[in-house]
Specification:
The chain is an alpha/beta fold. It has a single domain, classed as Rhodanese-like domain (Oxidized Rhodanese, domain 1). The protein contains 6 helices and 4 strands. It has a 4-stranded parallel sheet, sandwiched between helices. The protein starts with a helix and ends in a 7-residue tail after the last helix.
């Protein structure tokens, strides 16, 4: 009985760790058409919350990249252009600030934290995303 309980507990813990590891290593998938469209925008808006949070109330203009995955995925959007205008937001502003620091450490120099979804919404009202001709 104890062996069975130990086996179940170990298996449950393994499932939990595996699920957490997958959520913390998000590989964004952007097709060529999306890359072309994003490259032509006046700025990139990035939601740095989890995919689950983004699904609940993410802005349609934003790309979802969790803050801890931004280092591995940002070049797909910017093609390595360090002067790309990037705006980030999250729930409280904490993860957005972490993303800003990560991007700065990578050499990006045109970054702004809009802090929250509300901050991003207000920013979009006055600064719509549009394609650069």
């Amino acid at each position: 009985m104890i062996k069975k309980l130990l086996l179940i507990t170990t298996f449950s813990a393994l499932l939990f760790v595996t699920a957490c590891a997958k959520e913390n290593n998000t590989e964004i998938q952007i097709n060529t058409q999306q890359q072309i469209q994003l490259a032509k925008q006046n700025y990139l808006l990035i939601d740095v919350r989890t995919p689950r949070e983004y699904a609940q109330n993410g802005l349609k203009e934003a790309v979802s990249i969790p803050y801890n995955d931004i280092k591995n995925n940002i070049d797909k959007l910017t093609h390595g252009k360090k002067n790309t205008a990037i705006k980030v937001y999250c729930r409280s502003g904490n993860r957005a600030e972490l993303a800003v620091e990560t991007l700065k450490s990578m050499g990006y120099n045109n970054i702004e934290s809009l802090r929250t979804v509300v901050g991003a919404t207000n920013y979009l009202e006055n600064n719509p995303i549009y394609p650069i001709p």
